[in-house]
């Protein structure tokens, strides 16, 4: 696998909290991609979701990797163009993925095609380790993301 | 989806047009980190505690390193101290700009969320995002990355940025300073409810500087103690309705930390432009209305830009990135001004530098009792409102404190029991 260079204008955005059980899957996948791509792979990002506003403004494609809840078994990977529904957050401590994309759209800066790679989790407690099912899904998610990048690059004629 | 980090709930019990009870039920488990630290090396504390929060990791890092340095008997001064102030400025800019533009401003302008705000006020939102990004760049320049910086260590830093690295930021920071002044003027024109509760403000106070991580702990009711006496003056109590701890003054009860407290106790120590614009928009005296915290955050953003430019212009890297030390058994405490208020850490470690005990008091646990008290006073004149409108008003009042509940993202459910 040699993801660096296959789609230079596609960024991968790993979202989630490493200390919150299966919510760590975004950073875990990003970390594995970095291990493969080597240091300095600037197309792999693990910022808070507000960083997406810039990312979708300045790149042709963004792949968001995140944990989700669903009826599917833990570790199930789903790839979609639809912005996943999120709970109505009160927090004054950050903005969600959907808010970040909504703000970018409202500002006329949602220039990128956004793909979501969602991994179903089952445990999100503070201090929980990621579940074995989600950990087992990380390599598969990495392979799917590299394939997605190649497809997006072909679409863009890269 | 995204961060699933706990829940909070607000319950209002109303009987015969009388507000009987207000409970802000928050599930905040700071003991997890305190237990996690036991048995770890003292050098690990800054990076472990930074993980408590994605928005204010520098606060946790600086409170922990200053506590360790006190226990080890080392002094960190010169450019290392200045760099710590610089990265803290980055965190204040990032945190304040996110909160005031995307999370608090929509409340004042009647919007449900920041997306609606962005549609109606695109220039202001874009300006806020530009400023926030500058804060992130400062964090990355000093700390190695924007979220959970990795360059801070006990004694100083792992490596120092070059003078040219930092000077490359100067022009953008100057522009940011100008734009941040415009933000103060913008938010000062918002409408504020008439609400001025009696409050004890608590903040750090440095002899000459606007406080970040040095000085005494003071209040507007006569408290003035060194950091070492924190636990003599404050106590954390477990409230029945919540797993979160509430900090209280042992003698006077609830109190307020954060921007308004800092401003009221340190206004004369602000940088010149921050002081000037504060006076221009009418913040010449004490700020007693917690809703005006949005203006104070904007003023503190001006301060942070001004201070960052000053530090960068004077910066000359030292020959060594950190002060060396010999590990020995020790105990020490540190305190710093997180964007939301004072963040207290205390550690004891053995002769091998293995942590035996840790105590962390985040700012939000210090504000929780004050938030509940604000709601007790704010809700009664508004009980005729619909539940939906009341929820809006309560959320806005809670957001005055930019709560950092379990230092993560939270979900609030409002229950109004009018039976």
How would you characterize this protein structure?
- The complex is a heterodimer of chains A (158) and B (419).
- By secondary structure, chain A is α/β, with parallel strands linked by helices.
- Chain A is 35% helix and 17% strand.
- Chain A has four helices and five strands.
- A five-stranded mixed sheet of chain A has the order 2-1-3-5-4, sandwiched between helices.
- In chain B, the strands form five sheets. A three-stranded mixed sheet of chain B has the order 2-1-13, covered by helices on one side. Chain B has a three-stranded antiparallel sheet with strand order 5-6-7, covered by helices on one side.
- Chain B has 419 residues and is of the alpha+beta class.
- The N terminus of chain B is likely disordered.
- Chain B is globular, with a radius of gyration of 21 Å.
- Helices cover 45% and strands 18% of the residues of chain B.
- At the A-B interface, helix 2, strand 3 and helix 3 of A face helix 4, helix 5, helix 6 and helix 13 of B.
| Overall mean confidence score, pLDDT of chain A | 85
Structural class of chain A: alpha/beta
Query: What kind of sheet is the major sheet of chain B?
Result: 3 strands, mixed
Low-confidence stretches of chain B: 1-6, 406-411
Q: Distance N terminus to C terminus of chain A?
A: 18 Å
The separation of the N and C termini of chain B measures 35 Å
How would you sum up the global shape of chain B? globular
What portion of residues of chain B is helical?
40-55%
Radius of gyration of chain B: 21 Å
Q: Largest contact between protein chains?
A: A-B, 45 and 47 residues
Oligomer: heterodimer
Helical content of chain A stands at 25-40%
SSE arrangement of chain A, N to C: EHEHEEHEH
Number of strands of chain A: 5
Describe the main β-sheet of chain A briefly: 5 strands, mixed
Q: Helix tally of chain A?
A: 4
What shape does the CA trace of chain A take? globular
Instruction: Bin the strand percentage of chain A.
Output: 15-25%
């Amino acid at each position: 696998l040699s993801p660096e260079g296959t789609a230079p204008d596609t960024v991968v955005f790993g979202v989630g909290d490493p200390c919150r059980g299966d919510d760590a899957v975004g950073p875990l996948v990003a970390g594995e991609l970095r291990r493969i791509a080597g240091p300095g792979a600037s197309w792999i990002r693990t910022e808070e979701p507000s960083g997406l506003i810039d990312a979708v403004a300045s790149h042709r494609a963004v792949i968001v990797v995140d944990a989700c809840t669903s009826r599917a078994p833990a570790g199930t990977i789903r790839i979609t163009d639809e912005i996943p529904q999120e709970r109505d957050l009160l927090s004054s401590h950050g903005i969600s993925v959907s808010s970040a994309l909504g703000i970018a759209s409202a500002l006329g800066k949602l220039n990128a095609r956004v793909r979501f790679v969602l991994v179903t989790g089952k445990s999100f407690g503070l201090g929980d380790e990621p579940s074995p099912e989600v950990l087992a899904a990380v390599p598969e998610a990495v392979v799917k993301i590299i394939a997605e990048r190649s497809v997006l690059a072909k679409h863009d004629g890269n | 989806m995204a961060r699933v980090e706990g829940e909070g709930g607000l319950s209002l019990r109303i009987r015969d047009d009388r507000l009987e009870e207000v409970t802000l039920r928050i599930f905040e488990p700071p003991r997890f980190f305190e237990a996690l630290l036991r048995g770890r090396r003292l050098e690990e504390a800054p990076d472990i505690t930074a993980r408590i929060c994605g928005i204010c990791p520098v606060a946790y890092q600086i409170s922990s390193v200053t506590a360790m340095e006190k226990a080890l008997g080392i002094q960190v001064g010169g450019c290392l101290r200045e760099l710590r102030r610089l990265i803290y400025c980055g965190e204040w800019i990032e945190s304040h700009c996110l909160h005031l533009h995307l999370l608090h401003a929509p409340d004042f302008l009647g919007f449900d969320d920041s997306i609606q705000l962005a549609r109606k006020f695109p220039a202001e939102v874009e300006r806020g995002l530009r400023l926030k990004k500058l804060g992130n760049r400062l964090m990355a320049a000093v700390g190695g990355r924007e979220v959970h910086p990795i360059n801070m260590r006990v004694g100083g830093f792992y490596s120092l940025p070059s003078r040219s690295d930092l000077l490359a930021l100067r022009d953008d920071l100057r522009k940011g300073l100008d734009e941040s002044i415009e933000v103060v003027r913008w938010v000062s024109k918002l409408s504020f409810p008439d609400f001025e509760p009696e409050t004890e403000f608590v903040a750090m106070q440095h002899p000459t500087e606007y406080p970040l991580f040095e000085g005494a702990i003071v209040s507007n009711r006569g408290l003035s103690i060194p950091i070492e006496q924190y636990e003599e003056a404050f106590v954390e109590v477990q409230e029945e309705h919540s797993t979160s701890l509430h900090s209280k003054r042992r003698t006077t009860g609830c109190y307020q930390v954060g921007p308004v407290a800092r401003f009221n106790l340190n206004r004369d120590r602000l940088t010149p432009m921050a002081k000037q614009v504060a006076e221009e928009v009418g913040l010449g005296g004490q700020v007693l209305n917690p809703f005006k915290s949005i203006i104070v955050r904007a003023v503190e953003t001006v301060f942070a830009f001004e201070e960052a430019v000053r530090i960068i212009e004077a910066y000359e890297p030292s020959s060594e990135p950190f002060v060396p030390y010999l590990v020995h058994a020790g105990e020490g405490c540190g305190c710093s001004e997180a964007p939301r208020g004072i963040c207290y850490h205390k550690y004891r470690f053995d002769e091998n530098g293995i942590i035996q005990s840790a105590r962390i008091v985040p700012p939000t646990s210090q504000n929780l009792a004050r938030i509940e008290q604000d709601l007790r006073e704010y809700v009664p004149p508004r009980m005729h409102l619909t539940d939906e409108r009341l929820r809006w008003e309560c959320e806005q009042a809670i957001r005055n404190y930019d709560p950092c509940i379990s230092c993560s993202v939270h979900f609030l459910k409002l229950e109004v029991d009018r039976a």
